[in-house]
């Protein structure tokens, strides 16, 4: 991949996270990773690592092989109008991370012959721990493997049907925030019990990491691991039941579904 050039159009939180993730793999020459942003001083850390930061999207597209779109949904169509003249069938592979914008909507502007892949990573991509779901309508198997090769080195990928991309956005991308809020609540409980804030957070973070690793490596259902911790009349089952009485699972599911319903109403 040393000779593959990637242009990330949009140097916001996700765009810069992808850039840092790509750079951290060592599989790409830093100068072959380009990020566009109007205010270049906001991403000085990228240039310090040897990556290129540009203000001209057309210039970035013209010299890239893979284009990753990382702007806000309301900015996308203006961006596509700006760069579509620089896009070339047979050279470019377009990867969209835009929430709520279908492949068909992108095709309507850039044309149906250009291979397009939708990818939904999360911000853990910056530390190579993303869960990235990808979907396509017209990309070849070789092109899909190329996209997978980019995101696999920064976490895990899963191919899905395009109609599930919105659900993947909530579960995988918004899910980062949901998990972090739980960690925060866990730590707050630890503080109330007597730990200092940094101690409570350290325990909460490592505990959640361990719980996730048990499922990832063991492949068992969460309830099977829960059963190992809960003993008759014990403190764990008492706490779990109290959380459920107060709607823990229900609140999480309702929050997920509210986020899912919101995606359909995002203004483009």
Report on the structure:
The protein has about 270 residues and is an alpha/beta fold. It has 2 domains: about 5-160, 3-Layer(aba) Sandwich (Rossmann fold); about 170-265, Orthogonal Bundle (ProC C-terminal domain-like fold). It is built from 11 helices and 8 strands. Strands 3-2-1-4-5-6-7-8 form an 8-stranded mixed β-sheet, with helices on both faces. Helix 7 crosses helix 8 (about 195-220).
Secondary structure: elements and pairs:
Layout: E1 6-9, H1 13-25, E2 33-36, H2 44-48, E3 52-54, H3 57-62, E4 66-69, H4 73-83, E5 93-96, H5 103-110, E6 116-120, E7 130-136, H6 141-152, E8 155-159, H7 165-193, H8 197-218, H9 222-229, H10 235-245, H11 248-263
Parallel strand pairs: 1-2, 1-4, 2-3, 4-5, 5-6, 7-8
Antiparallel strand pairs: 6-7
Compose a concise summary of this entry.
The chain is α/β, with parallel strands linked by helices. It has 2 domains: 6-160, NAD(P)-binding Rossmann-like Domain (Rossmann fold); 169-263, ProC C-terminal domain-like (ProC C-terminal domain-like fold, Orthogonal Bundle), CATH 1.10.3730. Helices cover 53% and strands 13% of the residues.
């Amino acid at each position: 991949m040393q000779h593959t050039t990637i242009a990330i159009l949009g140097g916001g939180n996700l765009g810069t996270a992808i850039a840092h993730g790509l750079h951290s793999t060592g599989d790409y020459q830093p100068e072959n990773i380009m990020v566009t942003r109007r205010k270049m001083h906001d991403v000085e850390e990228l240039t310090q690592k040897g990556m290129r930061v540009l203000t001209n999207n057309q210039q970035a597209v013209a010299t890239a092989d893979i284009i990753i779109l990382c702007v806000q949904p309301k900015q996308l169509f203006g961006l596509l109008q700006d760069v579509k003249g620089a896009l070339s069938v047979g050279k470019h592979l377009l990867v969209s991370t835009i929430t709520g914008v279908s492949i068909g909507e992108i095709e309507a502007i850039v044309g149906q012959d250009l291979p397009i892949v939708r990818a939904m990573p999360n911000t853990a991509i910056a530390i190579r721990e993303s869960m990235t779901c990808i979907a396509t309508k017209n990309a070849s198997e070789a092109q899909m493997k190329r996209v997978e090769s980019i995101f696999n080195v920064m976490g895990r990928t899963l191919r899905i049907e395009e109609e599930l991309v919105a659900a993947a956005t909530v579960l995988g991308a918004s899910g980062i925030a949901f998990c972090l809020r739980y960690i925060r609540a866990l730590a707050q409980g630890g503080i109330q019990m007597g730990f200092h804030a940094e101690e409570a957070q350290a325990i909460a973070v490592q505990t959640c990491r361990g719980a996730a690793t048990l499922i990832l490596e063991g492949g068992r259902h969460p309830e099977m691991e829960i059963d190992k911790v809960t003993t008759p009349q014990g403190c764990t089952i008492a706490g779990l039941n109290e959380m459920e009485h107060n709607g823990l699972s229900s609140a999480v599911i309702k929050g997920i579904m509210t986020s899912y319903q919101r995606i359909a109403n995002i203004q483009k």
